[in-house]
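ARCHIVE RECORD
Type: protein–small molecule complex
Small molecule: 4'-phosphopantetheine
Source of inputs: curated submission
Record status: active
Notes field left blank by submitter.
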Amino acid sequence: MGKKAVYPGSFDPITNGHIDILERSTRMFDRVVLAILGNPAKDSVFPLAGRLRMARESVGDMAGVTVETFQGLLVDFLVQQKADVIIRGIRAVSDFEYEFQMAMMNRRLNSRIETVYLMPSESYFYLSSHLVHEVASLNGDVTGLVPAGVQKILEGKYGPGKGRK
Ligand code: PNS
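STRUCTURE (tokenized, with ligand):
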């Protein structure tokens, strides 16, 4: 059956940094489930259905990858998926504290599940969905930071980017 991992997140929207981590994880695992959080408590810019559509289109037919949504505890989703590894991307030191807390809490909730951290290409070290929204909403250029389909949707929402200076 091979080793299966879950790559969870808000993916609001999916960026090229996420795709980079996903590609790296497919080299380590036979199957990877990109899992989009649908908890109503967490505010998101795009609704779950939109985030799912953008992620599915961006992932395309990448071998071994499926895109799903989940509600509730992440560790419960892993059990349901028969997976025991969580993939997370880590960028700068500033990500560490939040990631450390999450990994420890998930371990407390289910000690059989491990979290594996992968570092994206340095070109995406500063990239986040939040910054993408901010730049796109101020008509800055997000070319190369998000998949082409996501860029189109951002332009539909905020208007076209002005291009790089
Ligand atoms: O992209 P994000 O917002 O950093 O992803 C955070 C995510 C979805 C991984 C995290 O919020 C999560 O796992 N939520 C599910 C609820 C849960 O299991 N909480 C306890 C573990 S800290």
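CURATOR ANNOTATION: Residues 2 and 30 are 6 Å apart (CA to CA).
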